[in-house]
Amino acid sequence: xxxxxxxxxxxxxxxxxxxxxxxxxxxxxxxxxxxxxxxxxxxxxxxxxxxxxxxxxxxxxxxxxxxxxxxxxxxxxxxxxxxxxxxxxxxxxxxxxxxxxxxxxxxxxxxxxxxxxxxxxxxxxxxxxxxxxxxxxxxxxxxxxxxxxxxxxxxxxxxxxxxxxxxxxxxxxxxxxxxxxxxxxxxxxxxxxxxxxxxxxxxxxxxxxxxxxxxxxxxxxxxxxxxxxxxxxxxxxxxxxxxxxxxx
Amino acid sequence: xxxxxxxxxxxxxxxxxxxxxxxxxxxxxxxxxxxxxxxxxxxxxxxxxxxxxxxxxxxxxxxxxxxxxxxxxx
Lengths: 248, 74
Known about the structure:
The complex is a heterodimer.
Chain A: E1 11-13, E2 16-17, E3 20-21, E4 24-25, H1 26-47, H2 55-75, H3 83-101, H4 112-134, H5 148-163, H6 165-197, H7 200-204, H8 206-243
Antiparallel strand pairs in A: 1-4, 2-3
Helix pairs in contact in A: 1-2, 1-3, 2-3, 2-8, 3-8, 4-6, 4-8, 6-8
Chain B: H1 2-14, H2 17-38, H3 40-43, H4 47-73
C-alpha cells in the first residue's frame, strides 16, 4: 500500500478543450463540496437571526468575529476592506483541511497547485493594494532605514524575502497536509501489516491503532492552525502593503 | 541502479532539515512558556506571535520534505 496513493488526482468526467485537459477531477468535486458546505452553513446560520443566537448562529458569529479580530490586530482599521477576502480564504482552507480529515475524502490543500494559487492570489492582492495606496512609494518597502553601505546588502535581501513569500506560504500549507496524511496512512499500514502477521503480532496491532487516533487529534489541531496561520500571514502582508514600515 | 540508490540516500539526507525545525519549535514554545510563567498577564496577548513563530519555524523543516519529494519524483 503506497501512502502517497491518496494524493492522486483522478478525472471523474474527462473533458478536453483546445488541447487542455480540463477534466472534472476528484479534487474539483471536493472543492465544490467545500464551497457548497461553507455557503450552506453560512446561509442556514443567518436565516433565522435571533438576539440570543442558537448553536449555528453562534458558530457563524464566532468565525466572523475571529477573522475580524485577526484583521484588526494585524492590519488595523484599514484592513477591514479586505475582510471578505481574508474570511473567504480562511474558511476555504479550514473547511478543506477538515474535509480532508474525513477518511476517504481527497485533501484539496495537499495539492501544491491549489495552495500556490491561493498564495499567488494573496501576493498579487498585496502588490496591487500596495501600488494603489502608495503609488510608486510602495517600493520603499524594500528599503529599510539603514546606512547607505548596508542598503547595498539589505535591499536584495528584502526583495528576495518578499519574492519567497508566496512559496513559503503555499509550501507550508501543502507540506503540512501532505506530511500529516502520509503519516496517518503509514500508521494505518502498520495496523494491517501487524494484523495479518498472525499470533501475538495480531494482538499488538491495536497499538498503532491508538496511535492513529492520537495523530488524528493532532491533525485536527494542525488543520485549524494552518488555516489560521495562512489567514494571519495574509493580514500581515496586507498590513505591510497598507502601512509600509510604520506601525498602525 | 546506482542513481536510484543515490536518490534514496539524498532524500533521506534531506530529512536532516528536521533537526533545525525541531530545535526551533522547541525554542519557540520553551521561550513562550518561560516568558508566560514570569508574566502570566501578558501571555494571552502573545498567542498570535507564538503561533506565527511556530509556523515560520516549522516551514523551514517542511522545505526539507519538499526537497526530498523533488529528489524522489524527478
